[in-house]
Specification:
By secondary structure, the chain is of the alpha+beta class. Helix content is 26%, strand content 19%. It has two domains: 17-47 and 65-71 and 95-303, 3-Layer(aba) Sandwich (D-Maltodextrin-Binding Protein, domain 2); 349-569, Dipeptide-binding Protein, domain 3 (Roll), CATH 3.10.105.10. It has helices spanning 17-26, 34-38, 122-128, 179-190, 195-200, 204-209, 237-240, 251-257, 308-317, 331-336, 365-373, 377-383, 414-423, 446-458, 471-479, 509-513, 527-537, 542-559, and strands spanning 65-68, 102-107, 136-137, 146-147, 150-155, 161-166, 219-222, 225-229, 271-277, 281-286, 299-304, 322-323, 340-346, 349-355, 389-391, 430-437, 462-469, 493-499, 562-575, 578-579, 596-597. Strands 2, 9, 10, 11, 12, 13, 14, 15, 16, 17, 18 and 19 form a twelve-stranded mixed β-sheet that branches. Strands 1-5-6-8-7 form a five-stranded antiparallel β-sheet, covered by helices on one side. It has a two-stranded antiparallel ribbon with strand order 3-4. Helix 1 crosses helix 15, helix 11 (365-373) runs antiparallel to helix 13 (414-423) and helix 17 (527-537) runs antiparallel to helix 18. It is globular and about 70 Å long.
Length: 599
């Protein structure tokens, strides 16, 4: 992990694509967001693909779409009623909730940044979300977009103008939340001519998730109204505002500290920064001025505990109160411990095996379909993942609007696999190299799963030669292209996973399955898929957009560029004294403002 102890104001950082790649990989994250993928492109982020032109609005334009977040909840009290639905913030705690105490959370790795626009890794984003509210966010167990620092917003009929009404609140340092102060965050990260971009940048993540924002049209309409202009419609614009990297920072604090802002972070979230002991702890404390009501906890201490087994041991011994990203092999131990509780929800996560379509065997769709039939995904979920996942069939997420199961599916059928291999002229099978990481957030049980996959492929005559790599080397090899991933030699198969904050597959699917290069190292190419995804990105009508996604899923499922594997659940373990933990499907969020500790 990168040592931040030498992050001084006079240290000049030149972040190349390889630098960013290593930051993400060293943090232990899988391809959990576009930051990782952005690192794989040119040093100047590539121009985003052109979306299909939107349908012109009618002559008499319809009124702008307006979304409002209700008034914020009041701070919880002992007399609070039973938990209601979110009212512009996380739902209030139930009656009897106690104020005070310190919660100790075991993270998968140490923090690498205190600057939300420069962090890498799910663990860091999850932590920083408690310091920095974005304009738009999600609460409780829902993926519905709600107001964060924006209490409402309007979208113009042509989908090009977004106008946000801001909350009347302050940053942790007392700086008022104004339209100019919010614009500062976006100008700093998107405008390369901006003074603070030049002093504290670059920010390739921002360029990647907001490719159509016209920087000189980020305007303060009045003190509490901020307007964005897009060069073309982008159906994922609001979704991308929910990333931790969209957290709004205090301009005076950034101007005071420069690059050292990472050691003195100031936002407008429910908690404020207290202390960072590198390699030991990252501490935050209650912000009494939080717009949705002050949190119940006095402090939260995030401890880096990289070994999975060590996290469980520390939880059992009482040294930590909460363990996030619990590995599936420990689920049964948690369930059998009377002092612990397991909290689980379906997550916005997908885990697959990329197939190299440049490989002489995997060029044939029948071979790709055969290896899909050869794998018993449900058995892997039951035996390795303790049932904490669901089988995937394409690239969309279950129980979300864009998902459809009306696609070609590959049930476990070794005889069908053998038949397809014979049709493809491979009755005796073939051999290939299977690249596997040793670890990585989102890469759940990679070696254990690889061993089962290897054995099941062998049953149909396919020899998968496993080659493992530590995570830093693995991610570099993967995005460098499968034709040279094994020390310059080609590989036929490689594992990967992805986690995004919203269930709209437009946030990631085109990037990993469309076009050419490191974002799509398997070399899958289907122009019909590309056109469907690009048209969907420019489509403002939600139903029409999801219909396009469903058509695209059918194409991908039939083409089988991946071995479709599973969607993992979001699972945490905690001491039973920790109350009111509500998990969101977004793995990048851990809301703690309504969590409390039973004395």
């Amino acid at each position: 992990m990168e040592d931040t102890s030498d992050l001084t104001a006079d240290r000049v950082v030149r972040m190349t694509r390889r630098d960013l790649l290593l930051r993400v990989s060293l943090a232990g994250a899988g391809l959990t967001g576009l930051a990782t993928l952005a690192a794989c492109g040119p040093q100047t982020p590539p121009a985003a693909p052109t979306a299909a032109a939107p349908t012109p609005p009618p002559t008499q334009a319809a009124p702008a779409v307006k979304t409002s977040a209700p008034a914020p909840t009041v701070a919880p009290t002992a007399a609070a009623a039973a938990t209601p639905k979110p009212q512009g913030g996380q739902a209030i705690a139930p009656a009897g909730a106690k104020k005070g105490g310190t919660l100790v959370v075991a993270n998968e790795a140490d923090m690498n940044e205190g600057d939300p626009q420069k962090y890498s890794g799910t663990h860091a984003g999850r932590t920083l979300r408690n310091l920095f509210d974005p304009l738009v966010t999600v609460y409780d167990d829902s993926s519905d977009l709600k107001g964060g620092l924006a209490e409402s917003w309007e979208i113009s009929p042509d989908g090009l103008t977004y106008t946000f009404k801001l909350r009347d609140t302050t940053f942790h340092d007392g700086t008022p939340l104004t339209a100019d102060n919010v614009a500062f965050t976006f100008l700093r990260t998107l405008d390369e001519t901006n003074e603070w971009y030049q002093k504290t940048g670059p920010f390739p993540f921002a360029k990647y998730i907001w490719p159509y924002v016209v920087t000189d049209q980020i305007k303060a309409v009045d003190t509490r109204t901020l307007r964005f202009q897009l060069s073309q419609p982008d159906s994922t614009f609001l979704d991308n505002l929910t990333w931790a990297g969209s957290g709004i920072i205090s301009p005076p604090a950034l101007q005071k500290w420069g690059r050292d802002f990472t050691l003195h972070p100031v936002g407008a979230g429910p908690f404020k920064f207290t202390d960072w002991q590198k390699g030991t702890s990252f501490t935050i404390e209650r912000f009494d001025g939080y717009w949705a009501g002050a949190p119940l906890l006095d402090k939260v201490v995030f401890k880096p505990v990289e070994e999975s087994a060590a996290r469980l041991v520390q939880l059992q011994s009482g040294n930590v109160d909460l363990v996030v990203a619990l590995p599936p092999e420990f689920v049964s131990q948690v369930k059998s411990d009377s002092n612990l509780q397991l909290i689980e929800t379906a997550g916005i996560h997908i885990w697959w095996i990329t197939l190299n379509l440049n490989n002489e065997h995997f060029k044939d769709k029948r071979v790709r379909q055969a290896v899909n039939y050869a794998i018993d995904k449900q058995a892997i979920i039951n035996d390795i993942l303790a049932g904490s996942a669901s089988v995937s069939h394409s690239f969309a997420f279950p129980n979300t609007p864009a998902f459809t199961d009306q696609v070609p599916q590959y049930s476990y059928d070794p005889q069908k696999a053998k038949s397809l291999l014979t049709e493809a002229g491979l009755p005796n099978g073939f051999s290939t190299v299977f690249l596997v990481p040793e670890s990585g957030s989102g890469m759940i049980a990679p070696k254990e799963i690889a061993t089962v996959v290897q054995a099941q492929l062998a049953q149909v005559g396919v020899e998968a030669k496993i080659q493992t790599m530590e995570w830093t080397s693995y991610i570099s090899a993967y995005v460098g292209g499968m034709d040279k991933a094994a020390g310059g030699s080609p590989v036929g198969m490689a594992q990967m996973s992805y986690m995004i904050p919203q269930p709209d597959p437009g946030m990631y699917a085109y990037d990993v399955l469309g076009g050419k290069g490191s974002l799509n190292p398997g070399g899958y190419a289907n122009s019909d898929f590309d056109q469907l995804m690009l048209k969907a990105k420019g489509m403002s009508d939600a139903k029409q957009r999801t219909d396009l996604y469903k058509q695209a899923q059918t194409l991908v499922a039939g083409d089988a560029p991946w071995i479709f594997m599973f969607h993992a659940h979001n699972v945490v373990a905690a001491n039973k004294k920790v109350q009111n933990i509500v998990l969101n499907p977004d793995f990048n969020i851990l809301h703690l403002e309504r969590v409390w500790i039973q004395p």
